[in-house]
């Protein structure tokens, strides 16, 4: 009989821990928004302003499958020691976490270009920030409409 009570206590503890874990995870399941992306950019670069230009952000305007959305990023730069791309960060304002991918470059990279596939939860903006060796920031933005079964979503 004492053994059965121990199992009940154990089951109660496991259920309590599962509830606590679910409560801790639940806030992260909410979608990011433009403010969350701005907060992430501010963490990286403070109040530095990014200007448009130098970034070629190639994403589809319509993605029929949000699970595998291709992204190609290329930044115009001579990639010399004095003038090169240091990093590129890609954000999405409708995913649970705003950061999608980050790349680091050096002059030895030859060119600042990269490709990946990302997962998008819904129609949203893709924001790209490139940091140059001199500290300047460049940005590009594109909306990707994620459709569900070929219908607008």
Fraction in beta strands: 35-45%
CATH superfamily name of the largest domain?
A: SoxY domain
Mean pLDDT: 85
**How many separate domains make up the residues?**
2
CATH class of the largest domain: Mainly Beta
Q: Mind telling me which CATH architecture of the largest domain this is?
A: Sandwich
Distance between the termini: 57 Å
What would you say this structure looks like, in words?
The protein is α+β, with helices and mostly antiparallel strands and 153 residues long. It folds into 2 domains: 1-30; 31-146, Sandwich (Immunoglobulin-like), CATH 2.60.40.2470. The protein contains 2 helices and 9 strands. The strands form 2 sheets. Strands 1, 3, 5, 6, 8 and 9 form a 6-stranded mixed β-sheet that branches.
What's the layout of helices and strands?
Layout: H1 2-25, H2 34-45, E1 50-52, E2 55-58, E3 62-63, E4 69-75, E5 85-92, E6 99-104, E7 112-118, E8 124-132, E9 137-146
Parallel strand pairs: 1-9, 3-9
Antiparallel strand pairs: 2-4, 4-7, 5-6, 5-8, 8-9
Quick gist of this model?
The chain contains 2 helices and 9 strands; from the N terminus they run H-H-E-E-E-E-E-E-E-E-E.
């Amino acid at each position: 009989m004492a053994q059965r009570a121990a199992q009940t206590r154990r089951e109660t503890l496991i259920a309590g821990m599962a509830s606590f874990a679910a409560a801790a995870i639940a806030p992260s399941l909410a979608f990011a928004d433009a403010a969350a992306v701005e907060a992430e950019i501010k963490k990286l670069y403070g109040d530095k302003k990014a200007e448009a230009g130098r970034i070629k952000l190639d994403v589809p305007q319509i993605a029929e499958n949000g699970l595998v959305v291709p992204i190609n990023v290329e930044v115009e730069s001579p990639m010399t020691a004095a003038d090169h791309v240091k990093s590129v960060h890609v954000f999405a304002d409708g995913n649970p976490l705003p950061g999608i991918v980050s790349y680091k470059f050096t002059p030895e990279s030859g060119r600042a270009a990269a490709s990946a596939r990302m997962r998008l939860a819904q129609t949203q903006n893709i924001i790209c920030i490139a940091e140059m060796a001199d500290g300047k920031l460049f940005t590009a933005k594109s909306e990707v409409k994620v459709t569900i079964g070929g219908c607008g979503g």
